[in-house]
Amino acid sequence: MRILHTSDWHLGRSFHRISLLRAQRDFVEHLVATVREHEVDAVLVAGDVYDRAVPPLAAVELFDEALHRLADLGVPTVMISGNHDSARRLGVGAGLIERAGIHLRTDPAGCGTPVLLADAHGDVACYGLPYLEPALVREELGARRGGHTAVLEAAMERVRADLATRPAGTRSVVLAHAFVAGGAPSDSERDITVGGVASVPAEVFAGVDYTALGHLHGCQTITERVRYSGSPLAYSFSEADHRKTMWLIDLDARGGVTGERLDCPVPRRLARIRGRLDDLLRDPALDRHEDAWVEATLTDPHRPDEPMARLATRFPHVVSLALEPDRAPEDPLASYAQRLRNRSDQQIAEDFVAHVRAGRGPDHEERAVLTAALDAVRLDDTAREVAR
User: Fold this and answer.
1) Which residues of the chain carry a pLDDT beneath 70?
2) Residue 182: CA atoms inside 13 Å, Cβ hemisphere, count?
């Protein structure tokens, strides 16, 4: 069976206030053409179809267009909701849409009920695990403890229990939206840390022929059977070095997996440049970035006059400007910025406690209080987004 694995469309998202709707429409066009060209048997979309719980009308219209285009192909499509989607809204009309071969899996209770696909070698049971927010689904799934690993383990127990009832030789595919250990994140993904832990081990998905992951925006192989397709477009400059692709997966008669990366259209290259303003305006090595979307980090000791306007004379598509003056290592501002870089909210909060208590960091109970407070804020933000 030939499967096209994609995820993280984020319909409705912009790039530094630049609309990406045209680029997203071009991707849908490319997706449809790829299904035809490569004679794909099933399309998998592993979550974050939309960028937010209540997407703009133009994004909903594009999604509607994508559904019609996929249904017209006569190729089964399985989609799950991600942490950016409103599962309830995305799942509206799922029963009717399923008659057209589009299978929306947004309800955690349905984790153990597969979409049955078939080829010349028999059935492929395709299980959709929507994004599982531990605090909201732990009880429903009967997870023995909290956290992402526990709820995914509970969901996978349902998958394996159903698979055990299937005829011998039935192949299996799982779609999941999660941060799996070994994956490389970017700045584009919304934090899903719970209890100070965001990632889950790949072993959670053991026993499944192929796991199609969503959430991380870089295409990557965790194991031969567990892969991220990544997002089809770059949504932050942290993705400047990404090669945006989809996975073309061939599942053989015994469940063996081979994969090929298929490139997605690139609306405009991304470039990150750094240095003093005058140097950036003169350096011939930067000629190749003049047609790119540019993020410029200026290291001048003092803010130059009209830096954005001056940069735009050479880089007309500059969209982001940061100021990071060169500072001596002993400069307290430099050391503070260094301490914050690449640290989680939990680590920053614990560092602050240690700072105000003359080096004595939080004990086990205090750390648990900080963790609970940060989790409550994140859940509150999620609830407000869904309620809009």
Assistant:
1) 327-342, 378-388
2) 13
Phi, psi of 187 (to 5 degrees): -75, -5
β 210-214/171-177 pair status: parallel
CA angle 185, 114, 157 (to 5 degrees): 70
pLDDT confidence of residue 198: 83
Answer yes or no: do 12 and 63 share one domain. Answer: yes
Contact 228, 218 (CB under 8 A): yes
Are both 169 and 130 inside the same structural domain?
yes
Give start and end residues of each alpha helix (H) in the chain.
21-37, 57-73, 87-90, 94-98, 134-141, 148-163, 277-282, 307-314, 332-340, 345-356, 364-387
Range 193-228 burial, b when 16+ CB lie within 10 A, else e: bbbbbbbbebebbeebbbbbbbbbbbbbebeebbbb
Considering all CA atoms of the chain, what is the largest pairwise distance in Å, rounded to the nearest integer? 72
User: What was the pLDDT predicted at 290?
Assistant: 97
Q: What is the pLDDT of residues 268-279, one digit of tens each?
A: 999 999 999 999
Which two three-digit tokens encode residue 257?
Answer: 């997996």
**339: domain range?**
332-387
Among residues 334, 341, 293, 295, the alpha carbon closest in space to that of 317 is found at: 293
Whether residue 296 sits in one domain with residue 345: no
Q: Specify whether 129 is located in the same domain as 254.
A: yes
What are the pLDDT digits (tens) for 57-69?
A: 999 999 999 999 9
